[in-house]
Amino acid sequence: MASYETFAKIYDEVMDENLYLDWLEFTCRHLEKKQQKLLELACGTGILSVELANLGFEVTGLDLSEEMIALAKERITTDDEGLNFVTGDMLELKERETYDVVTCYSDSLCYMPNEEAVQQVFDGVYASLKNEGTFIFDVHSIYQMNEGFSEYSYHYQTDEFAFLWESYPGDYDHSVEHFLTFFVSDKKGKFERFDELHEERTYDVSIYRQLLKQAGFKKIDVFADFEDSEPDDESRRWFFICHK
């Protein structure tokens, strides 16, 4: 799993804010009004959790990174009675309380090392859902892994830091390795370098369906790229709507 120790500090600046609105709109389109208690897996710094709480959901944001959760907790105000952030592992959900909805966005499931780990997450989510609960998640498509990240390079710079992101094919089919390099300024204006490796992999839609059915999900819908349309050969992000 990625550490995010350095990434957490500048995460909000390098993320596209419009993506959070897209995830918010997609989530709300696929939920029933009675579904109010929500668990957001891999919540990061809590931007989407806050937006969901503002709409009336009772939200628990969970993330493996203590640094991310520390930043997320800074977003809580005195008015946010229905918002909570906890440090935790999505691979260990079975002992937690139950929810109407569980979400897992930003291709966070692609960080699972193998199919067994993905199955473990699905099993835990199923156990964490109330009857008739909904699980919504997204993953990178095979096209995105094989073509979209081919020779991908992204640079971002401010007065306080520089961020370099380069992606290369991974060791497995439909996998990628993201090499992140940070140059962060200290109080004296001196820049210090940090390096992180983020590894992601995805699978065919049929494999995700099989793992979800093995977890117990009965009705599974698949859409693409934030739209309510079926994926095609060049879809970049797959969305799964799963009903218990």
**Rg over C-alpha atoms, rounded to the nearest angstrom:** 18 Å
Q: Low-confidence stretches at least 5 residues in length (pLDDT < 50)?
A: none
Q: Let me know the CATH homologous superfamily of the largest domain.
A: Vaccinia Virus protein VP39
Q: What string, H for helix and E for strand, traces the elements in order? A: HHEHEHEEHEHEEEEHEE
CATH architecture of the largest domain: 3-Layer(aba) Sandwich
Largest sheet, spatial ordering of strands: 3-2-1-4-5-11-10
How would you sum up the global shape?
Answer: globular
Number of separate domains: 2
How much helix, percentage-wise, in residues? 25-40%
State the major sheet. Answer: 7 strands, mixed
CATH topology of the largest domain: Rossmann fold
GO molecular function: methyltransferase activity
Domain Methyltransferase: 39-133
InterPro entries: Methyltransf_25 (IPR041698), SAM-dependent_MTases_sf (IPR029063)
Keywords: Methyltransferase, Transferase
Summarize the structure.
By secondary structure, the protein is α/β, with parallel strands linked by helices.
Keywords:
single chain, 244 residues, alpha/beta, Rossmann fold, N-terminal domain of TfIIb, 2 domains, 7-stranded mixed sheet, 4-stranded antiparallel sheet, 28% helix, globular
Outline the structure in words:
The chain folds into two domains: 7-141 and 202-243, Vaccinia Virus protein VP39 (Rossmann fold, 3-Layer(aba) Sandwich), CATH 3.40.50.150; 144-201, N-terminal domain of TfIIb. Helix 5 packs across helix 7 (205-215). Helix 5 (115-128) links the parallel strand 4 and strand 5. The strands form two sheets. It has a seven-stranded mixed β-sheet, sandwiched between helices. A four-stranded antiparallel β-sheet has the order 6-7-8-9, covered by helices on one side. The chain is 28% helix and 34% strand. The chain is an alpha/beta fold and 244 residues long. The chain has seven helices and eleven strands. The model has no long low-confidence stretch (mean pLDDT 91). The protein is globular, with a radius of gyration of 18 Å. The chain has helices at residues 7-14, 17-29, 47-54, 66-73, 115-128, 142-148, 205-215, and strands spanning 37-41, 58-63, 83-87, 99-104, 129-140, 153-157, 161-169, 175-185, 191-201, 219-224, 237-243.
